[in-house]
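Re: Re: token formats

Sure, here are both.
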Amino acid sequence: MTWTSPIPPLGLGTYGRTGPEGMEAILAAIELGYRHIDTAQTYDSEANVGEAIRRSGLPRDAFFVTTKVADTKLRRADFGPSVARSLEAIGVDRVDLLLVHWPSEGGRVPLEDYVTALAEAQRNGQARLIGVSNFPIALLEQAKAILGPGVIATNQVEIHPYLQGPKLRDYARAEGLTLTAYEPLVKGRVKDDPLLAEIGAAHGVDAVAATLAFLRAEGHVAIPASANRAHLAANLAARDVALSADEVARIRGLDRGERTIDPAKAPAWDD
């Protein structure tokens, strides 16, 4: 497919990339060619991301950096200061993409309060693009009614071959909204899937690369996480894989609605 989203299709998740070992993993990823890096206030990896970018010697504009405002910082009094602290931790004037990490549990903080604060961060120049994470269709519709169409750049949600979210996927396509897939490799479980291995082998790659190629073929961004250099390199191989329509259809058949991230604070999912 021709990629039209302003968000690079393959990035690096940095959950767990803390301390010196986390720093080395991010530096290895940058050396291999990763330029889209995803962090969050709750990951405790913002400082490592910023330091790794500086150590790389590459210009700031070579990178696409995402961070996320925690659901504990959604109140008006907390949102803006938390964004300022994130920028300070990363060591940048603005991020490329700023997300709301989770909607307020039970609507305790009104949606209008935090999506308008999100838009204000963009107007203030603290974020080039803004979006949300873990939003079902109902909340996406409410956010659109508040902010207007086309303002939300992405919805970052769990997507992988076993949880493809067809209702959300079809809604996003109709809206021109990019979905960003977190947990895209199901903690590495896809590597043992016979169908994914077979399709990958047909393209000279492994099941993991086949999975990432599938997500891209579906129009999704994917942000796999790994601290293993070989795995990081293997993930990048997906950029050169073009699946056929038949292969995409066969992988679609793996969907079984298997969700792995479902905390008590989660909203009512669509799929």
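Second one below.
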Amino acid sequence: MIGIGLVGIGFMGMTHYLALQRTQGARVTALCSSSKTRLAGDWTGIQGNFGPRGTHMDLSSHARFEKFDDMLADSSVDLVDLCVPNDAHAPMTIRALEAGKHVLVEKPISLSLADADRMLAAAKASGRMLMVAHVLQFFPEFAFLLEAAQSGRYGKLQAAHFTRVISRPDWSSAIGDAEKNGGPAIDLHIHDTHFVGLLCGVPTAVHSRGTRNGDTVNHLTTQYLYEGADGPAVSAVSGALVQKSRPFAHGFEAYLEGATISLGIADPAGAGPVNPLVVYEPEGSTHPQLGAGDPIDAFAHELSAAVKAVATGVEYPGLSGTLARQALAMTLAEVESVRTGLPVRLT
């Protein structure tokens, strides 16, 4: 049984906690938060853009810590699950690795490539795993597309377009603070950047146009440029420009030689899919059966992969810290492209 030390009791921390109740081979042994109220079990003030609202929780079976270093001294913790503001990812990850703990840190890996490199170096020096929680690959619709492309059952992927738009969040002070999270390009868009890397590999260059609020890119449209004249032709639009009356929406349309796979989701906290996953083939269309669609299940699958990696000593490729650094490098290149108006090459 892998002991989990969950750090941060906000929207994402609550989401991970609920998902861990569905995760075999693991148990939450410790919780860490600077909020005495939330350590006492009052989560009624927590609400995100999907999933249930927080309620009163019985946390009596868990050790509870206000100080991170005190939790790191708890021998029952094998894996530290960091659900903290993005600017805290690097220092807290490095402290946990140096304390001999495995780490699963929420995306993005960090806000700078220099910090990401320090984190990867700390993991290597400690002999512990550094995993980054890019959850999109565990949602059934995205998992379906990834498997379809990798297996070749519909032929070669020729083109794809991804959408992820949201109004400026007001349900979390940290997520609305660009200094803490890097702004929508880093905190929001990196979901699709990471998935593009999984689906198609790293492009040779990116070309982005967008809008800025000061130095923060708050909306962008990107072309991912791959070697060769025949593609794949991949693009994405993402940002936080829409009005509050427009619900959060994400989705994709992928064009393979033998099928088009399409998804459009609006307001997963309420209205649900406006265009559930559909596969268009020459003879007609089908809707794959993907289960109940509870978003907490996607996080449970993600956490199960992390727990299995710790238990077996075999890294899960989709949670790789190196791949997460790659996604950050792509996203930062997109930000630079918005600022300069020019394509930016990737090494």
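The mean pLDDT is 92. DSSP finds eleven helices and 15 strands in the chain.
- S.
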